[in-house]
Amino acid sequence: MIEFDHVSKYFQGEAAVKDLSLTIREGEFTVLIGTSGSGKSTTLKMINRLVEHDEGRIRFAGEEIRNFDAKALRRRMGYAIQSIGLFPHWNVAQNIATVPQLLKWPKARIEARIDELLDLLGLEAAQFRERYPHQLSGGQQQRVGVARALAADPEVLLMDEPFGALDPVTRAALQQEIVRIHNLLGRTIVLVTHDIEEALRLADRIVLMDGGQIIQQGTPLELLTNPANDFARDFFGRSELGVRLLSLRQVVNSLRVDEHIEGEPIKADLSLREALSLFVDRQCQQLPVVDEKGVPCGVLHFSDLVRGEHATNR
Ligand SMILES: Nc1ncnc2c1ncn2[C@@H]1O[C@H](COP(=O)(O)OP(=O)(O)OP(=O)(O)O)[C@@H](O)[C@H]1O
In this protein, which residues make up the domain named CBS (predicted)? Predict the structure, then answer.
């Protein structure tokens, strides 16, 4: 869907991105992560030509992006950034309608789309449509920013630290929301973050960058279990590796299905990391587990969790 072929970008003679080759597949959730100044945002902005590349080729749907009209290209790609960039003198509905209006959608279709998106992002349309950005919390503003990026149903969603500067609870809620949207709409998403947990939670594919280059790319599990070098190993943190791996596995994979115990059950689709917190909270050794319909489906043992962790650390 998007291919970087030996791409470089220079600012005042310094390479911000060096000889970068990367393929982003259709429908994939790709997360760019790395040290500060490693070239993540520059890479993202080259995709919608907010920054023009100096060397190499970038193709979108098989075509070099320079051959597109930059504005037309941007309308095919939603863009959401940390600072939100909502227009302060426009209300929520007007903000969301920006691109559909540029595309000259009929009014009724725009109005319906605004309601649909507010609903998708968990904002009551009647309550929020007419509000101005200063009448919204930071988390609500970020939601409207994401709704605006999705408005014209773009083929690609580009997000630069879209959940930055949010409290952990709102951040987690928005992360869940974007995963839901990704699963629902199957859109290609490229997201830049500093946050390792966020990358592990969201990515189909993680691209680890340093000094304008890709150090390693792969699934979260590949990067955690097979770091390409010391930088990758250090970046994801040796000491917490076991705990991080737990966040990638679900309770359902570690169940003893033939057992049954009484007690307040946990859901089978929780991550093992969330289950670990529950063991600690409840100070217990075993937890009953139910499936998505609430039917008991087995027991999770703390010892299995720890054993699994040791096994993966070897
Ligand atoms: N418009 C610009 N003019 C000059 N230098 C720039 C410009 N944009 C980026 N750079 C430089 O290019 C390098 C890569 O910047 P970029 O913003 O892509 O990094 P990043 O990985 O996104 O960093 P951060 O995580 O801190 O946002 C940095 O050294 C930065 O100072």
Answer: 257-314
